[in-house]
Specification:
By secondary structure, the chain is of the alpha+beta class. It contains two helices and eight strands, in the order αββαββββββ.
Length: about 170
């Protein structure tokens, strides 16, 4: 035999279950989004570290040696990678979009010393877009490489005091 108040307590149980399920879905989706952002940050850091290691290993070779970016992991969030010589005259119109021109111009005018700029794909964001690499100069100013194929098709050449990056 059912008690009188028992029938009224069931809707509260269902409401509580729906509330708990909604909280789990909301926090679960937030964690997934955060993990995807972390994945992009890790891929970008691996790319930068890989570029630094290639430059360092090419710098340690004999003068005139050439090196390539083999097996370099490129994030699918990055559209272009640009090398600049901040001490020299920069052709800003080669960057293409106004935001990149503003970022590079601001960096150069404030003597920040960054010589590597990562340009994200349209609608994407990167945690860090400016980096400083030692012992590197570019053959063009700027030298931008399209990364839509997932590869860096540039050549590093040891010139003794510096490593010059140029297109293939």
């Amino acid at each position: 035999m059912k008690k009188k108040g028992e029938a009224l307590s069931q809707p509260f149980i269902y409401i509580f279950v729906i509330f708990v399920a909604a909280v789990i879905i909301i926090f679960g989706s937030k964690i997934v989004v955060d993990l995807l952002k972390l994945e992009t940050q890790v891929e970008t850091n691996i790319l930068i570290k890989s570029i630094e290691n290639r430059i360092k290993s090419c710098y340690n070779l004999d003068k005139g040696s050439t090196c390539y970016f083999e097996n370099t992991v490129v994030s699918n969030e990055i559209n272009k990678i640009c090398f600049v010589n901040p001490e020299e005259n920069i052709e800003y119109d080669k960057f293409g979009d106004e935001l990149t021109i503003f970022i590079v111009k601001n960096s150069v005018e404030n003597n920040e010393g960054f010589n590597l700029f990562l340009i994200p794909k349209q609608g994407k964001e990167l945690d860090k877009t400016k980096h400083f690499l030692i012992n590197i100069v570019s053959s063009e100013n700027p030298l931008c490489e399209d990364l839509s194929d997932g590869k860096i098709n540039l050549i590093l050449e040891n010139e003794g005091q510096v490593v010059r990056v140029r297109k293939e």
